[in-house]
Amino acid sequence: MKRTNIYLDEAQSAALEQIARTQGISRAELIRQLIDRSVGASAAADLEADLAAIRDSFGTARGEDVSFGRGSDERAQHLDRMGEL
User: Fold this and answer.
1) Is residue 50 part of a domain?
2) What does the pLDDT read at residue 32?
3) pTM for this prediction
4) Closest CA to 80 of 69, 21, 60
5) Looking at residue 71, what is its pLDDT?
6) Which range marks the domain in which residue 45 is found?
7) pLDDT score of 70
8) 82, exposed or middle or buried, with CB in 10 Å at 0-12, 13-18, 19+?
9) Distance, CA of 49 to chain centre
């Protein structure tokens, strides 16, 4: 582990202290967890959650009227066929 010093204003310091106390962890541990959530492991977890939501939603419009109100150009025909799947 590497030691890092940062400057916080009074409100930031007090908020971190209160949250750390509530969670029963040190302020340093709380800061490490917050950093991990914003730049580390959670990015991969967020991506996996997004991909799972996309996979789970596939086919939910099956049987629904998904007309797109376009003319009958090639793209509209393709979208209509995709809506029928």
Assistant:
1) yes
2) 92
3) 0.48
4) 69
5) 63
6) 1-57
7) 59
8) exposed
9) 7
User: Which residues, at least 6 apart from 29, have a Cβ–Cβ distance to it below 8 Å?
Assistant: 20
At 81, the amino acid letter reads R
Cα gap 36→22, rounded to integer Å? 19
Task: Count structural domains, the chain.
Answer: 1
Cα distance between residue 8 and residue 20, in whole Å = 15
Looking at residue 8, which CATH number applies to its domain? 1.10.1220
Say if residues 20 and 26 touch (Cβ distance below 8 Å): yes
Q: What is the mean pLDDT of each run of 10 residues along the chain (85 residues)?
A: 93 96 95 85 74 87 71 79 79
Under 8 Å between Cβ of 16 and 31: yes
